[in-house]
Design brief:
Length: 482
């Protein structure tokens, strides 16, 4: 049925993964409405969504407020009833109503639409993006099933990032909705089977999902070793199927698509009850937080409001991170909002932060041992530092996952991940400049070709006109008829 690859390359398992802070904290709703919601117009890789509301407009929960703008773009909906108090090029600001009147309950449809095209349209209109962090529009990913035959859906429940427990809680509390979404995705893609990968450090989630899939012969739960970054798509595919993706190849070309467990719930809600993507579960954690929690929050809620829901801070955090500690990004303000891909907010104290002064490379080779892509970070680093980007690319820089495993184990505290991210950015910039230069050259060549063609056409027209005049002069005069 599937080939589980026992020998997974690289990876790490932190001694203290921080999950104990929130593992047993059930998902909560906000006690108080945020004073403002800030809905970003770009919560996806494509162009910014186009705002279709104006300042002063009243909006209701679930209402479309920004439409998709081309491929890889996704629409944005109002999470709560309220009034638009600001619209600019970056975001839509909404002041929620003090009293929220919940919409009347929608009966769950006994039978969802059977036409894949109709279900795809519902997913597209709901603005669902990948909730594992990449925020790739789900509609665009599912469209690949028109080009490729999909054999297997891999459902990512590994949640390998330290501290993060939102997916763990979702699997334990909403397993039926996850399985319902998986069934719908299997109808859309015509996949023969679905495999749910869950790390063994989540026994309750494994039990809940196993129970929820007990009547589905084609949906399987597979425990995985607790190893970071096993939640990365390439590593998950290799672990659950044995397939090792070639560079530049899409997983769909191998007959495989990967979806996050929270994305499956969003699919279920969009198709069965017509609910767009307006909320998500976020892990608020770190020892600088008074009471770490898992919170179901409206998209656009300021981070500061979520921290207040957790009782505030017990001390000034040494590091503030949006996402996990390995692949998340540092933030300087808690007033920015969460987006569709925000799985966690971390407020770390000095005992949790890994802040140290870099020293010279010890040539210990630990970075190479833990690299899940089997690269040689100690050889890549000097190439990037000396801006030898083409040479670094030949040594696999483009294949780097930016997982941070190499930097985590480096005894010299070298900025490996940051350097490789910068190198990949420079490679991307080089590709952009090369494409831009080639486009400019091609346009100039096309312009010269058009000018030459126009000149040739004018010359031919002039010659034809001269030949016509000459023909008239040389023709015998017509005799007059009396």
């Amino acid at each position: 049925m599937f080939n589980f690859a026992k020998n997974i390359a690289g990876g790490i398992h932190p001694v203290d993964d921080g999950k104990s802070l929130t593992r047993n904290q059930p998902i909560e709703r906000l006690n108080e409405l945020p004073p403002r919601l800030y809905l970003q117009l770009k919560q996806h890789p494509g162009a910014k969504a186009l705002a279709i509301v104006r300042e002063g407009d009243a909006v209701s929960a679930g209402q479309l407020i920004a439409s998709a703008n081309g491929r890889f773009s996704a629409p944005v909906h109002a999470p709560l009833n309220g009034r638009v108090v600001g619209v600019d090029e970056q975001q839509i600001e909404i002041k929620p109503d003090r009293v929220q009147i919940p919409p009347p309950p929608q009966p769950i449809k006994e039978t969802p639409p059977h036409e894949p095209a109709l279900m795809l349209e519902l997913i597209k209109n709901a603005g669902i993006v990948g909730m594992g962090g990449a925020m790739f529009p789900l509609y665009d990913k599912l469209e690949l099933c028109d080009k490729y035959d999909i054999d297997s859906l891999l459902i990512n429940g590994s949640e390998c990032e330290p501290y993060m427990t939102c997916d763990d809680r979702v699997m334990r509390e909403q397993s039926a909705q996850i399985v319902g979404g998986i069934r719908l995705l299997m109808q859309i893609t015509k996949a023969k089977q679905a495999i749910i990968g869950i790390e063994k450090n989540k026994p309750e989630a494994i039990d809940a999902m196993t129970s929820a899939t007990s009547e589905d012969e084609n949906i399987h739960v597979h425990p995985l070793p607790a190893l970071y970054p096993l939640g990365s798509s390439k590593q998950l595919i290799r672990a659950l199927t044995g397939i090792q993706l070639a560079e530049g190849r899409r997983s769909a070309s191998y007959g495989v698509l990967v979806h996050n467990v929270a994305s499956c719930i969003a699919v279920f809600e969009a198709i069965r009850i017509g609910r767009p993507m307006t909320h998500r579960v976020v892990t608020i954690s770190g020892r600088a937080v008074t009471q770490p929690r898992n919170i179901l929050a409206p998209i656009g809620t300021p981070i500061s409001h979520l921290i207040s829901q957790c009782g505030g801070l017990v001390q000034t955090p040494t590091q503030q991170i949006m996402g996990g500690p390995m692949m998340g990004r540092m933030i300087t303000s808690v007033h920015q909002p969460i987006v569709k891909g925000t799985c966690g907010i971390l407020m770390l104290d000095e005992t949790e932060s890994n802040i140290s002064v870099p020293s010279s490379c010890l040539r210990c080779g630990r970075c190479a041992q833990v690299c899940p892509m089997q690269l040689q970070p100690l050889h890549l680093l000097p190439l990037v530092q000396h801006e030898q980007f083409d040479e670094a690319k030949t040594h696999g820089l483009s294949q780097c996952l930016s997982c941070g495993a190499c930097a985590y184990v480096c005894p010299a505290s070298l900025p490996l991940t940051a350097s490789f991210n910068w190198g990949k950015f420079e490679l991307k910039k080089q590709r952009y400049m090369t494409t831009k230069s080639e486009t400019t050259r091609q346009r100039a060549a096309d312009h010269q070709q058009r000018l030459a063609a126009e000149a040739e056409a004018k010359k031919a027209a002039k010659a034809a006109k001269a030949a016509k005049r000459k023909s008239r002069r040389n023709s015998p005069a017509q005799e007059e008829t009396i």
